[in-house]
Amino acid sequence: MSLEHLRTIALNLPWFDYVGYLGMLLGLVSMAMRTIIPLRLFAIGACFCLGTFALLREAWPTLVVNAVTIPVLGWRTREMWLLTRRAGRAASGQTLSIDWLLPFMHPRTIRAGETLFKRGDDAGEMFYIAEGQLRLVAYNVLLGPGEVVGEIAMFSPTRRRTRTVVAETDARLLSIGESELKQLYYQNPHFGFYLIQLVTRRLVTNMERLEEKVQAADLARGSGVKTELRRN
To answer: Which of 9, 32, 136, 228 could make a disulfide contact with 141, Cβ separation 3.0–4.6 Å?
Structure first.
């Protein structure tokens, strides 16, 4: 088959065949994408072109598959885009909110007096307190709604719990496991940077709280010594 013959065939092809070839090209390009959002955008473009081609060629099964795939890919792309935006706002804001992560977490309840985890346990998940209170036994500190517990140990080298946490009251928690966090990271690497920022900021906040308590204890101890000296 000569080059001239191929050129003649190409010129005689209907326009929607070119749309089909474009869809094929976009599908191949999507396979080369390393992050999920560009991959899905190229895949949506491929499905649109192939669906158009199938409609005009009256290839109904192909049309149905692509017509169903487009809204699914669009919805998943929107979810990931919103997640990255919320994570970015949380990382750059003044608060340590993780509201952006809540839709990916799973509910869990715990009764008053129950132990959520003990020091030395494997750190396989982190928890968000939706209702109720938890107590950090070693520090005798209460954690309430809106606070997170267990996130730092998940990223420590040993992956072991450093504190024992007990339910002070009946509590409703939301949890997410390490494997799910990894999936979110692989879908969009920017998510990992935001998560590292949030964990680091929370670690700094915990250190500041501990320093304040140590200073308060030193002041109380100094006041007690002065009182005892006055009595003597």
So the answer is: 136
Contact yes or no for 113/133 (Cβ under 8 A): no
Domain limits, the chain: 3-92, 99-216
Residue 125's H or E segment, with its range, is: strand 125-131
- CATH 3.40.50.720, applies to 99-216: no
- C-alpha–C-alpha distance, residues 161 and 153, integer Å: 6
Q: Extract the tokens encoding 15.
A: 């326009």
Q: Do 124 and 156 touch, CB atoms closer than 8 A? A: no
Instruction: State pLDDT tens for residues 138-196.
Output: 777 888 998 888 888 887 788 899 889 999 999 999 999 888 887 777 766 666 777 77
Tokens 């968000």, residue located: 128
